């Protein structure tokens, strides 16, 4: 490990899009600065009511959500307290889970995150309308967002500033709503996998209408934008989370559930090591190989007895890298990114 840490790699600069805040390549580094963005999505029952809604869902499916709240959350709270991470991570809690599992949410609050104002609320799959964002009208989405903001504010004493969409399925109408209600960051997209950035105000991407002449839809997708939103995007993706490979959901096509936890553990380590050795051409700042390492957990998955041990091993491994690797709240990452953009 020490030989990797001391290695300096020179990378040639490449041009980046001047109209984008997504970090482009930079120069060689002399040391590392890694921010582990650890988060937990407390979806629980709501995951089966909105975007995960299926006509064949039954009590056995909802039981997984009950396990998440009653068993998974206490186990994860205990683990994070043991590892000294409770005040260095972020919980995304749907309004439905806040109201359905008040005792368990209080455990999260008492673990320290609310006092440090990093426990954010996400209007998630079901919330109060039992619908996901793409199932709701713009007015319904606004009403759900307002209620969840009130719930989180009453619970924490502070208005939430962070958002993650159900199944990462944020839509164009959500972004102006988040700006309107004063959110500082989103964590639903993956324009980059290891660098935060100000979210560009892209025009909607419209799929081809094959009933029309080819000349009407044979054109490039417009991605360059001189306009940026006020939202910092803290990226996440399917390869940095636990649930899809490690939970079996009978009515979700892309769930697995029987993947060996060591496969996921090694994949996360491989990803970390590649970024450690190569990310200096993407996010260096003043000679520092600077990147974030997002991990998204779910209490119904990482709270299971055969998974939580792997989570502990992975967290201990990340901590073993010393001062150059730090666990950080999403809020802190977002505000630092805004300060850098303002330079």
**Terminal CA distance:** 35 Å
Model regions low in confidence, pLDDT < 50 over at least 5 residues: 1-20, 22-29, 115-131
Determine Rg (CA atoms, Å).
20 Å
- Pairing-aware structural class of the strands and helices? alpha/beta
H/E order of the elements? HEHEHHEHEHEEEHHHEHHEH
The largest β sheet comes out as: 5 strands, parallel
Q: Name the beta content range.
A: 5-15%
Q: Quick one: overall form? A: globular
* Number of helical elements: 12
Number of strands: 9
The pLDDT mean sits at: 82
What is the helix fraction of residues, given as a range? Answer: 25-40%
Structural overview:
- The chain is an alpha/beta fold and 343 residues long.
- The protein has twelve helices and nine strands.
- The strands form two sheets. Strands 1, 2, 3, 8 and 9 form a five-stranded parallel beta sheet that branches. Strands 4-5-7-6 form a four-stranded mixed beta sheet, with helices on both faces.
- Helix 2 packs parallel to helix 11 and helix 8 packs parallel to helix 11.
- The longest helix is centred in the first third of the chain and has 25 residues.
- The two termini are 35 Å apart.
- The N terminus is likely disordered.
């Amino acid at each position: 490990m020490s030989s990797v840490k001391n290695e300096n790699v020179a990378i040639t600069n490449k041009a980046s899009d001047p109209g984008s805040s997504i970090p482009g390549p930079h120069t060689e580094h002399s040391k590392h600065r890694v921010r582990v963005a650890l988060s937990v999505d407390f979806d629980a029952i709501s995951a089966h009511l909105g975007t995960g809604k299926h006509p064949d869902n039954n009590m056995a499916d909802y039981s997984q959500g009950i396990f998440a709240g009653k068993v998974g959350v206490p186990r994860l709270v205990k683990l994070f307290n043991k590892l000294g991470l409770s005040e260095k991570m972020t919980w995304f809690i749907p309004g439905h889970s806040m109201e359905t599992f008040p005792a368990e949410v209080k455990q999260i609050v008492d673990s320290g995150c609310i006092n440090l104002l990093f426990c954010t609320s996400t209007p998630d799959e079901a919330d109060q309308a039992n619908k996901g964002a793409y199932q709701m009208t713009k007015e319904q989405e606004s009403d759900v967002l307002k209620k969840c903001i009130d719930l989180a504010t009453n619970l924490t004493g502070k208005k939430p500033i962070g958002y993650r969409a159900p199944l990462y399925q944020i839509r164009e109408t959500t972004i102006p709503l988040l700006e309107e209600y004063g959110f500082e960051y989103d964590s639903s997209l993956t324009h980059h996998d290891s660098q935060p950035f100000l979210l560009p105000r892209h025009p909607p991407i419209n799929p081809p209408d094959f009933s029309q002449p080819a000349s009407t839809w044979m054109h490039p997708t417009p991605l360059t934008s001189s306009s940026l939103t006020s939202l910092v995007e803290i990226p996440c993706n399917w390869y940095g989370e636990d649930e899809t490979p490690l939970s079996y959901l009978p009515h979700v096509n892309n769930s697995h559930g029987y993947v060996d936890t060591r496969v996921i553990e090694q994949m996360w380590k491989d990803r970390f090591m590649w970024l450690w050795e190569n990310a200096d051409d993407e996010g260096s700042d003043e000679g520092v190989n600077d990147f974030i390492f997002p991990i998204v957990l779910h209490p119904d998955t990482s709270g299971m007895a055969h998974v939580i041990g792997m989570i502990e091993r992975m967290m201990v491994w990340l901590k073993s890298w010393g001062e150059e690797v730090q666990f950080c709240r999403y809020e802190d990452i977002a505000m630092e990114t805004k300060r850098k953009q303002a330079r």
